[in-house]
Design goal:
This protein has 153 residues and is mainly alpha-helical. It contains 7 helices and 5 strands; from the N terminus they run E-H-H-E-E-H-H-H-H-E-E-H. A hairpin with a 2-residue loop joins strand 2 (33-35) and strand 3 (38-42). Helix 5 (79-107) packs across helix 7 (146-152) and helix 6 (118-128) runs antiparallel to helix 7 (146-152). It is elongated.
Length: 153
């Protein structure tokens, strides 16, 4: 099987060499030796990197991905963890859909000014009652009850 040094893997994968070294440190990939000072990988490392990218697109942590490799470093997919992640995504989709729908209702309000819009007023009243809290360090609002009022309309 063809061998690739870390520079070649970086070029083919689009990942910086520092990320490849970090993945190796985490146990996600492994080099087979060195060519001078450069790490050398089997060409199938590209498939492994694709698997990592797929897992990351599903927002699996690197630790989750490490746990899904067997002793030889081959994929040993944790079906239970995938189902848990799918359930988490379902909850996120539901929450984001409610927020989207609330925003659209406010955006489509026929009142000439939003401050006169009953839906917008419900949102403001909800915020005033402490139904939104700030997420730590992000400055973003977390939904508690306010969007529920918008969903009822």
């Amino acid at each position: 099987m063809k061998e690739m040094d870390i520079g070649e893997v970086a070029r083919c994968s689009g990942l910086p060499a520092s990320t490849l070294r970090y993945y190796e440190e985490k146990g996600l990939i492994s080099s087979i030796g060195r060519r001078g000072l450069s790490r050398v990988f089997r060409a199938d490392v590209l498939q492994r990197l694709s698997l990592i990218a797929l897992g990351q697109s599903a927002e699996l942590s690197l630790d989750d991905l490490v746990a899904m490799l067997d002793a030889e470093g081959q994929p040993d997919i944790d079906r239970h963890r995938l189902n848990e992640r799918a359930d988490e995504l379902d909850r996120a989709i539901e929450r984001l859909s409610a927020i989207r729908d609330g925003l659209r209702r406010v955006a489509c309000c026929p009142a000439d000014r939003h401050i006169k819009c009953p839906t917008f007023q419900k949102l403001l009243n909800s915020v005033g009652k402490g139904n939104f809290k700030r997420k730590t360090g992000k400055g973003q609002l977390r939904r508690r009850g306010a969007v529920r009022h918008l969903e009822e309309k």
